[in-house]
Design a protein that fits this description.
142 residues; 8 strands; elongated
Amino acid sequence: MRQSSTFLLILCAALLAGCNLRAGNVTDTPVPTLDAPQVRFAYPENNSSVFEGTDLTLEVAAQDSGVGISRVELLIDDVPHDQAAPENNTPVPAFVVRFNWLAEGLGKHAITAIAYRADDRPSPPVTIVVDVIPRPEATESP
């Protein structure tokens, strides 16, 4: 019986010595990642048509539940067109900006907006399509 008790004691000690469990440490705790910022076009609607030569005003709204929006970029056909930042370059939770674009080049154009928070994390890009159509011919009266 004494051999059994000694064997169980040694077995328990070996199991405890091999155990990797440890108390949690604050530095080991993962920090939750905030959601990415969001951006959307308030105007114009997707698949809108506009006459060639129109100075089109695009309205973009961005928001962020984390550190705030620091800038919004606008791309036309994947080429950077313009960007805007909140007043005093201070990140804000919500930001609305208006961009102007001279509608040139007949056909469909992809217009993309991306919002960035202060830590440079981008929103998922949002793209709308605007169809630039020819202006109607002016009719002459006799």
